Amino acid sequence: MLNFKMIKTVYIYTYGCQMNVHDSEKMLGILSENGYRTAEKPEEADLIIFNTCAIREKAEQKFFSQLGRTKLLKKKRQDLKIAVAGCVAQDAKDNIIKKAPFVDFVLGPQNIHLISDLVSEKNTRTSFEENPDIAYKEYITKRDSSIKAWVSIMYGCNNFCSYCIVPYTRGREISRPSNRILSEIRQLHENGYKEVTLLGQNVNSYMSDIDFTGLLRKIDLININRVRFVTSHPRDLSDDLIRAISELKSVCEHLHLPIQSGSDRILDLMNRGYSYSEYIEKINMLRELMPGIAITSDIITGFPGETDEDYMLTVKALEEIEFDGIFAFKFSPRKGTKAFGMSKHLPDNVKTERLNHILKIQEDITYKKNKMIERTIQEILVEGHSETDKNMLVGRTRTNKIVTIPDLQENVGSFVKAKIQTARRHSLYGINIHSGRILN
Ligand code: SAH
Ligand code: SF4
Ligand code: F3S
């Protein structure tokens, strides 16, 4: 039994990718084992954690300005503890404490288990060691959802794309043993979870006693309804893996496959390890085997030395491939990466212009893609109520598109067959179909 006085509260700010979202769940799990509850607001917390992202300057700035505001809370309450975790912590190391001496504890993404030291007041203050043991650690996780779960399958990245800071903040690639992954997913299935998303910076280079395709085949036997994974690297997407995705019942018909640029010259400078035509070959095979598959991607505009011609090749790629959706970013120079020291950095207005142009082109493509599923019947996993209309539910198709449907008292976590009635630029509306009868 917990002594009432020992109950403390924690508030966590999470920035960045799914890896960070899941790391926050792991830290909250460790803390709840130590008697911590989650606070609704930072003002009410005994401990505030920043789980930071360093991928672009903007992400880092967001954290630093929030940290500045939090300093005022600490001034009012000396017993408030502040921890900085995640990729900025790993990148900036001791400089965080130099810059912000009111921070109590700084820990890198490979050392999140040490958040318990803070609780036991061992207070080592900083932990940034490379920690290959991370793949063998098991965490008690406090998951945000009771329907969909993140499952780590590998940590770190070896790719060293020339613009990217992740290999420096998350360390070398290491895969988690397959039996651990499988037992975690079995447990989630038994607990009623409907969907798992396998996490890693480059999931298709997973390698333990089995490779990624082997892992997917074993996961499929568990019979959880939906399996997704992020992120795949085009270079490591084998024919064998494409076939497995098409054959396995639980693996969803959606692939996030970052292309970054349509110019071979830029792809080479980015150290991506594939050409545009090799990328297209994979897309063609995916679509031949799975005509309904949704493909999404990431684009960087204004990489150093990107000419108008290079940029127009990216535009051409978007028009040729017709992704279901993209995330596009302005190139952000990150200290310590190869691209940081490259010549011919572009002015910000050029990067912005290209970014806005790309987003506009993609908007029309996304709309066209959404239109294509009008009048089709889709399986929707209900995730919750619409924020703007409490009479409506929101869920996702297997292709990861968000659909709004009327609330006919379906439970969150249930599967509804819905006919897509209207496709808009940013949303899809469906009508629920029950045993062949269309309601409403
Ligand atoms: N491991 C994943 C995710 C990496 S981060 C992958 O390889 O795709 C997600 C995206 O951020 C990348 O795909 C890239 O498009 C973008 N990104 C990474 N570093 C960046 C930088 N320095 N500037 C702008 N965008 C960047
Ligand atoms: Fe970064 Fe490239 Fe690794 Fe992705 S694959 S995390 S973009 S280095
Ligand atoms: Fe950001 Fe680190 Fe993820 S830099 S995108 S939180 S791996």
Folded structure, characterized:
With 440 residues, the protein is of the alpha/beta class. The protein has 3 domains: 8-127, Rossmann fold; 138-371, pyruvate-formate lyase- activating enzyme (Alpha-Beta Horseshoe); 377-438, Nucleic acid-binding proteins (OB fold (Dihydrolipoamide Acetyltransferase, E2P)), CATH 2.40.50. The protein is built from 13 helices and 20 strands. The strands form 5 sheets. A 6-stranded parallel sheet has the order 2-1-3-4-5-6, with helices on both faces. Helix 8 (212-220) packs parallel to helix 9 (239-247) and helix 9 packs parallel to helix 11 (276-289). The longest helix has 25 residues, at 348-372. The model is unreliable at 435-440 (pLDDT under 50). The chain binds S-adenosyl-L-homocysteine, iron/sulfur cluster and FE3-S4 cluster. Iron/sulfur cluster (SF4) binds at residues 157, 159-161, 164, 166-167, 201-202, 233.
State the separation between the terminal residues, measured CA to CA: 51 Å
CATH homologous superfamily label of the largest domain? tm_1862 like domain
Main sheet characteristics: 6 strands, parallel
DSSP helix count?
Answer: 13
Biggest sheet, spatial arrangement of strands: 2-1-3-4-5-6
> What is the rounded Rg?
23 Å
> What structural class do you assign from the helix and strand content?
alpha/beta
State mean pLDDT (0 to 100 scale): 94
